Amino acid sequence: MVKPFEKPIYVTRPLLPSMDNFIYRMKRIWESKWITNNGGQHQKLETELKKYLKVDNLSLINNGTIALQIALKALDIEGEVITTPFTFAATPHAIAWNGLTPVFCDIDPETLNIDAKKIEPLITEKTSAILPVHVFGTPCDVEKIQKIADEYNLKVIYDGAHAFGTEIDGVGIGNYGDITMYSFHATKLFNTVEGGALACNNKELKQKIDMLKNFGIKNEEEVVFIGTNGKMNEFQAAMGLEVLKKVEEEREKRKKIQEIYYQELGDLEGISFIPKKDLEGVTSSYQYFVIRINEKQFGVSRDFVYEKLKEYNVYTRKYFFPLCSDYNCYRNLPSVAKENLPVAYKVVNEVLSLPFYGDLGAKNAEKICDIIKNIG
Ligand SMILES: *Cc1c(COP(=O)(O)O)cnc(C)c1O
Predict the structure, then answer these.
(1) How high is the pLDDT of residue 376?
(2) N or C: which end of the chain has fewer CB within 10 A?
(3) Is the CB of 133 under 6 A from ligand 1?
(4) Is 183 in the pocket of ligand 1 (CB under 6 A)?
């Protein structure tokens, strides 16, 4: 019999930097008396992240949700935006908050990303953008999506909240589409406590984004857009500069934990991995480790596993249950009909995010696997 963990094990823990280094930066900020509005820490973080993410233009924002809203404004999106129901609330909310209508498209059964094959039938004369999510850091079918966008003259904004450091054949994920959003929330691999960024493919667009995040101010005498306050402050940026130093080490640690999960759970009938092991050419973001449970084959349901793990003091998450199309605020949209979203409605009852962070350690990961193996 496996004994329950003494202390609760959560699905993730924030990556915290050296406190001494952080305090050193705090002192520098105090001396400068410059605590927000594109200060020294902000400028340095923007430059360093641009390199790390391998993108040409990057704008730091105070969180990922505001970043998405700014992206939609920057591209003058109107009317309908095609997106996925299998995502965090922020994705459709950013669309709706901007006065636009989210149109939910079904997902691909392998990647759980928007199913590019099902986008075209949803395009109407009101459609002006596609907003796919690189779910759990797995790249969307970026080529097919771009082809559709080109054909119908649509903009593409990627929600890359899970895709920090994801690359396709060495190309940073932020190079696809018109704009890519990153989230630096505490639960993400890289964090600035709260924070985010937008990557885009041309300088003019970056300039517009930078004005939009600063109330639309162009200079002391001109306000040219209806902007918002999306500025990242110096404390967030300082945190980011220190966390960034630890990201590679964290990825290595997560890689080892991932290997244990693959090894220990790989032979269990009814358990599969999202994404599949070793996607060709893809560098993983190591954001989440997700299993999919086929109840018929595994013998018990996802919900059973979730509840049972709690008895062992292990708190997994059913990301992204419930589907966004099931929220009260979107229930009346025509695109939410279950028959339009068969894969999403099936998958959402089968996925489970397992604890996944560097400090979890090999022993704890092995113990979680032992519990799952003996769960039926
Ligand atoms: C975390 C997350 C966001 C929102 O980011 P915040 O920085 O928390 O506002 C958006 N989309 C997805 C898929 C996320 O996981």
Answers:
(1) 75
(2) N
(3) yes
(4) yes
